[in-house]
Amino acid sequence: MQSVINFLKTYPALQIIAVLLVGFSLLSPYFLTAGNFEALLGANAVVLIAAIGMTVVFLAGGIDLSISTVISASAVIAGLVMAQTDSVVAGAVTAVVVGLMFGALNGVLIGYFRLTPFITTMATQLIARGIAFVLSQGIAVKGTPYWMLDFGFMLWMGIPAVTLVALGLVVVSALAMSQTTWGRHVMLVGSNQEAARHAGINTRFVEFSVYLFAGVMAGAAGFISIANLGNAIPGVGDTLLLIIIGAVVLGGTGMTGGEGSVERTVLGVAILAMLTNGLNLLGIPFYDQLIIQGVLIFLGTYLAMRLGSRGRA
């Protein structure tokens, strides 16, 4: 029994998931259908990938407001490359490189020039959004290779291929955070940067690296968004920033650093995905959904803080 209690303290979001699962199952006959869960999983692959990047930034005590528009810029530039070359591989490499460049810019300015993360990434957010709309002229970039379109609808063992890609990135990221020296350094910098510095950790490089990582995740998310939507959409990431942050916080990762994990973020994404899907099935208007999501984020944050503090007591 004690092991179950400890598990719930570590993953407080599970309680909310259980309530949503039971509640929506009773309220809608369509919620627990295979088709609905396929749609739910596929639609949230982009958010999950981006939320992985945001989680690592949070764990180091930072924040990245540009991650959503870097998704857009990566998608547009990758879409243009694929339209010209008809190469999915070239598009994937381009998307990741674009994300990496934005991540490197954030990392250098924050890690080495000591600029404020909030203001720095806000500026990068505007630049990325502008690039996406200038290059696309504000319209969807067409010419996506057919294999990419097929990939967006492909199922492996009943699970969307785009979701399996996202879960693969989750596994790699979770292992990197828990099993490598870099991951331990990220957690220590987020917990106490001064102590990390005295311990001989290159805190500037660690800060640089987490923004680089977030940029790569944003690039990957941008590429996957093309598979989801069929074309590169210049505004694909514009509405995702608060969803990404909300998912990370709901999962139990603190914004002050050193507390949380990639695994918790998966649960946070699951909560928002289930909530949005269930409310849509019930015909709840969009703006009413925003109120419910806001209340749920309050609740999730409270549970994470309350159970987390008990776990440390």
What does this structure look like?
By secondary structure, the protein is mainly alpha-helical. The chain has one domain: ABC transporter involved in vitamin B12 uptake, BtuC (Orthogonal Bundle), CATH 1.10.3470. The protein is built from 15 helices and 2 strands. It has helices at residues 2-10, 13-27, 34-43, 45-59, 67-85, 88-112, 117-136, 146-153, 161-179, 181-191, 193-198, 203-229, 241-251, 262-281, 286-312, and strands spanning 155-156, 159-160. Helix 5 (67-85) packs parallel to helix 7, helix 8 (146-153) crosses helix 12 (203-229) and helix 10 (181-191) packs across helix 12 (203-229). Residues 309-313 have low confidence and may be disordered.
Unreliable segments (pLDDT under 50, ≥5 consecutive)? 309-313
Q: How big a fraction of the residues is strand?
A: under 5%
CATH topology: ABC transporter involved in vitamin B12 uptake, BtuC
In whole angstroms, how far apart are the ends? 19 Å
Main beta sheet, described? 2 strands, antiparallel
The count of helical stretches stands at 15
Would you list the SSEs in sequence order as H and E? HHHHHHHHEEHHHHHHH
Q: Helical residue percent?
A: over 70%
Taking all Cα atoms into account, the compactness measure Rg is: 19 Å
Shape: globular
Strand order of the largest sheet: 1-2
CATH architecture: Orthogonal Bundle
Compute the number of structural domains: 1
- CATH class assignment: Mainly Alpha
Structural class: mainly alpha
Number of strands: 2
- Summarize model confidence as the mean pLDDT: 93
